[in-house]
Design goal:
The protein is mainly β. It is built from one helix and four strands.
Length: 87
């Protein structure tokens, strides 16, 4: 799928962008009136990150909401091999 989260399946949704003019009532005007309504897209904030899936590491497109809520597990970064030091 195009721009869809691999974890929660969040995808773009359609909404309206409303353009208004006039002064708000609480500021002393007669209220704002819509002068134009056009379609717009609400797109999920997708990031391409490495995730631990089962026993392997995969690169997935995941939305930030899933990353911050801890629904994915990042792979464990291992240090490069070093010789043991004798004390």
């Amino acid at each position: 799928m195009g721009s869809q989260c691999d974890v929660c399946k969040k995808k773009p949704t359609v909404g309206n962008q409303i353009t208004t003019r006039g002064k708000a009532k609480y500021l002393g005007g007669v209220g704002q009136k819509p002068t134009g309504i056009s379609k717009r897209m609400f797109r999920p904030n997708l990031q391409r990150i490495q995730c631990q899936v089962g026993g392997s590491v995969e690169t997935l497109r995941v939305c930030v909401q899933c990353i911050r809520s801890g629904r994915i597990q990042r792979p464990i970064k291992r240090r490069a091999f070093t010789m043991p030091t004798s004390v």
